[in-house]
Structures are given as C-alpha cells and as structure tokens.
Amino acid sequence: MLTALVKGKFTIIKDCAKIADNTVLLPNSVVPALAHMSGWPAQFIEDLPESTEENIEAQTKQYYNRFQPVEAD
C-alpha cells in the first residue's frame, strides 16, 4: 500500500514503474518505464524485469475475478 507520494509539477511516470512508499519526485522529473524509484528526493534503485507488465496484469485479473455481482431485489 502506498503511504505517501509527493509528486512535483510536470512529473512524468512511465508504464510499469515502481515508486516506493514515502518517495518524493521532484518537479519536471521523468520516471522511466520498468524503473524502481525510492527516496527523498527519488533515486533510481534498479531496473525491473521485462515480465513486470505481464505479472501486474495477471495479478490484477486474479484480484478482480474474485468479485461477485450483487443480486438486485
């Protein structure tokens, strides 16, 4: 769960980037795709694997498949 993210003006976060809790992104910064960022100010930690997008998609589908429709009266 994300506890706090401070994002400066005109900050761009690309696809499948991981932003750690309590991270501060400075104004006009760009977070590249598949990057793990953390700190105050944010610093690059590591490249995420190329399979990150597929893993996120599978986890999201699994999460939403557990929901059941509500019966209308």
TrEMBL record:
Keywords annotated in UniProt: Cytoplasm, Cytoskeleton
Any one GO cellular component localisation term in the record: dynactin complex
Database matches in InterPro entries: DCTN5, Trimer_LpxA-like_sf
Subcellular location: Cytoplasm, Cytoskeleton
Domain of life: Eukaryota
Annotated family: Belongs to the dynactin subunits 5/6 family. Dynactin subunit 5 subfamily.
The protein's name: Dynactin subunit 5
Natural source organism: Schizopora paradoxa
Lineage: Eukaryota, Fungi, Dikarya, Basidiomycota, Agaricomycotina
